[in-house]
Amino acid sequence: MTTTKQATGRWGEETATEYLKSKGYRVLARNVHSAHGEIDIVASKDGLLVFVEVKTRRSHAFAYPEDSVTRRKQAYMLFAANEYLQAHPESGDSWQFDVIAVEGKPGGKAQVVHFENVIE
């Protein structure tokens, strides 16, 4: 049985995927597992590989979705991306990390904010 949190997370990832497609990104993979965590979405646009972390909240009453991407989470994202790049050397040398914050409820209207190139 799925929890409300899991359903909301899945809805957020689907919303983010559709958002990226509408902006001209090509989604290459979703939920890529590594020893250091998971990459929610791997996409590409104009020769740039983009690793996307999706954060979904029903509201921002306690915090905005993007606030949960801490330095520690960013470090895990880097490790996971390095594993992906080693496994997919054809991906090229040009890549970045984005965060997509989704706020709302499954079946409702989503508010999407896209933060590009969040780790330098």
What features would you describe in this structure?
This protein has 120 residues and is α+β, with helices and mostly antiparallel strands. The protein has one domain: Trna Endonuclease, Chain: A, domain 1 (3-Layer(aba) Sandwich). The protein has helices spanning 4-22, 71-87; strands at residues 26-34, 37-45, 48-57, 95-103, 111-115. A 5-stranded mixed β-sheet has the order 1-2-3-4-5. Strand 4 (95-103) and strand 5 (111-115) form a beta hairpin. The chain is globular. The termini are far apart.
Bin the strand percentage. Answer: 35-45%
Low-pLDDT segments: none
Helix content: 25-40%
Shape: globular
Going by CATH, the architecture would be 3-Layer(aba) Sandwich
* Largest sheet, spatial ordering of strands: 1-2-3-4-5
Rg over CA atoms = 14 Å
Derived structural class:
alpha+beta
Query: Which fold name corresponds to the CATH topology?
Result: Trna Endonuclease, Chain: A, domain 1
- The topology string of helices and strands comes to HEEEHEE
Count the strands? 5
> What profile does the largest beta sheet have?
5 strands, mixed
How many helices? The count is 2
